[in-house]
Design brief:
With 165 residues, this protein is of the alpha+beta class. 36% of the residues lie in helices and 21% in strands. It contains five helices and eight strands; from the N terminus they run βαααββββαβββα. A four-stranded antiparallel beta sheet has the order 1-2-3-4, with helices on one face. α2 packs antiparallel against α3.
Length: 165
């Protein structure tokens, strides 16, 4: 560190977001993508009476658009700048309690009959892991956030790190 420069000169400029400590896109499962790709032959059949080449192109374009839309529309889990972001929703990590990760039968119970009625949830089929994070804000009507993740242990650790910083 240069002695002539103040310590603040080595930090990121104000207004620039720091890199996320955790980021995961809840992209659709392979089976969902394969099911969406079945649209290509169906759309092609509609255009066969016009021309076989047009039918082939229309089917391929439609399948590509559907697959790209499914992937881009998938929500993102992110822990960044002291906040937990799930899709468009976000909450400061300081308002969260101890996160707990679950997989297997425990996760299935939490996603189903064990899901609290006051929970905010972001659940995706085909993703086994679930994280449960209590909300410690008395003014918030939501008592807990429950969301799907492929790596419950990593996102829980990122939330804990964000809470301690």
């Amino acid at each position: 560190m240069n002695a002539d420069m103040p310590p603040a000169a080595h930090t990121a400029p104000r207004g620039v977001a720091a890199a996320p400590t955790y980021r995961e896109r809840l992209s659709p499962s392979l089976w969902t993508l394969l099911s969406a790709a079945v649209a290509a032959p169906m759309i092609s059949l509609v255009f066969v009476p016009l021309d076989a080449t047009i039918a082939l192109i229309a089917g391929l374009v439609a399948a590509a658009v559907i697959l790209v839309a499914l992937v881009l529309a998938a929500p993102v889990i992110e822990v960044r700048d002291g906040e937990l972001r799930l899709g468009r929703a976000h909450i400061p990590a300081r308002l969260l309690g101890e996160p707990q990760g679950f997989t297997g039968d425990e996760a299935r119970e939490i996603r189903g009959p064990g899901l609290p009625r006051t929970a905010w949830h972001l659940l995706r089929g085909g993703i086994d892991g679930v994280v449960v994070v209590p909300v410690r804000d008395d003014r918030d009507p939501v008592s807990v956030w429950v969301f799907s993740t492929r790596t419950p242990d990593r996102v829980s650790a990122a939330i804990r790190r964000s809470q301690s910083s």
